[in-house]
């Protein structure tokens, strides 16, 4: 497996009026080329901020205080070329370098397809905008016969329109020749998300960040979108970072899973390993809280006791200890657990697996 | 589209008739009329034939007829382009307005242009640099601009010009050019005078517009499509102007149509009075105070007409600019 994005010990802080919030606190993971990484956690646990940090788009007043995001860049128009490792956190947030990566190397789709498309432009205009920035085509038709085409030029308006229609067809939008001239309000929620996917994939990115892409959609559309993403991933060899709070969804798509709680990474493992052998009490509690068909209806659905703590006033020791069913008094509230490889490739942050 | 515009024009016409009627009655409401004032004035001067002459006037202007009849005469002539005669100037209203229309429009358009050219970029800067020092300064200044009435500012400028610069800046022309035929020297003289009322008008207009632009843009910048545009690899500047401002500016079209457009006729009236400008504003105030019926009524009908035309134009422009809006 070839690494594509390595997040190393990332810390993002928000200095707001009421204090400092550690939105992302020491998160590390690797997204491999062509593979899918799932990031799961409840609302406000820092998963979206992590994704935005990879795009060097941390919203104000957030700041990356330490850690790095390494992007293994390979020119997609020169597959033989060398891999260059770029530390995204060092790039100017509005500089040329990061703007080449945004959209061109890493595409992103968002939680709210309803308002993610600029309302005054057609889907064709929006796809075209991305194409003009990132999509290159071989310079002349004649040279296409040659073995090595090294010269590329930007797409023309007509080509952009053709590619847009082609992309809309690929993401399963009916009558793409007409829909290319549709505005967001003329499309349904599912169609809008398909257009978002078309925009993101039109520039052939090496990775797609999907930030809760199906949360706002109903279940049947959700299934369609997930299938679409899986199909497209197969055909274009693209990595996906899939952010969700839905364990059912992530089970379907992810190869590897990162579990987050209050800005901290609590567990990371292969998807199957995590489902069959969850180590951290938080992950176990999450898995227990999935409703199951066939269970006796008199049984109450399991939930995690207590409330999400105040981010300005985090519990001492392990942040999960006040809600943890396996709380060890005197230990969990005093000692901050370390990131430990409990089994091969299976990491957790819990004192149950530490010698203390 | 065309049927919509047609329907709107019909509504506007009905509205105008109603407005003209109501305003006619309201102007009529205070006890007495223009001639009772005139009579007192003449008697005070010791004019013995005053009573007789007043009766003459009364017959000439039809003031002896009942209200409804007078309204009917006025409004039926109005449609033919005869707006009646001004009591005070003893000349046709159309002629008086015509004389001042040119200057009024020039002043209003230059004020509008300056206001919008300053307000939009400043408002955008203020929103994209929210809570920065620049934004704080702009915010403070625009609150001062909002709180300062334009006539007060005009008084201050006048005071400063007379006391410090020893210059008379009232009016739109120097004395020697006032009645002179048009020439380049006269145009230059106009420009030398025009910038003062333009700037005073722009200060108050800009302040409000900056706040609106800032508020609209801040709201738009928080929308997911702005983040999505950035995530596509666009420059911040492109995201701001092509995506955020393009969406945030639509509500301003309504302001342009319903506030800025009617202000072409009577914008900044009090400032115009203070600076003694040859525009329609001072004429309007005088007419209202002196119960100069036909003059006041005519200007009022024009103002309302401009508001309705402005809002129609704004709606058409909005429909053209925002695909979500359909004219039905």
Describe this structure in words.
- The complex is a heterodimer of chains A (356) and B (328).
- Chain A has 10 helices and 14 strands.
- Chain A is an alpha/beta fold and 356 residues long.
- In chain A, a hairpin with a 2-residue loop joins strand 11 (256-261) and strand 12.
- Chain A starts with a strand and ends in an 8-residue tail after the last strand.
- By secondary structure, chain B is mostly helical.
- Chain B is built from 15 helices and 2 strands.
- The radius of gyration of chain B is 24 Å and the shape is globular.
- In chain B, 33% of the residues are buried.
- The mean pLDDT of chain B is 86.
CATH architecture of the domain at 103-290 in chain B: Orthogonal Bundle
**Kindly, what is the distance between the CA atoms of the first and last residues of chain B, rounded to a whole number of angstroms?**
8 Å
The dominant shape of chain B is globular
Broad structural category of chain B = mainly alpha
Unreliable spans of chain B: none
- Order of neighbouring strands in the sheet with most strands of chain B: 1-2
Rg of chain A, alpha carbons = 22 Å
Structural class of chain A: alpha/beta
